[in-house]
Model the fold of this input.
Amino acid sequence: MNKIVINTSLLIVLFKSQLTYLLPQLFTEIIVPAAVWGEIVKAGKIDIAINKLNHFPSYHKHPY
Done:
């Protein structure tokens, strides 16, 4: 099983460049730490990353 822990910058770049499909092809689990999730949510509902983050079932919010 291939896992990755992803940071805010990479997530935002992938969403804005419409390349989010790449990570699920490379990894079986994409871990988004709670602090990273919070940073993206803090960006606001108009940001593309927050609008799409909740629609990707392979992205898992973790408490650390």
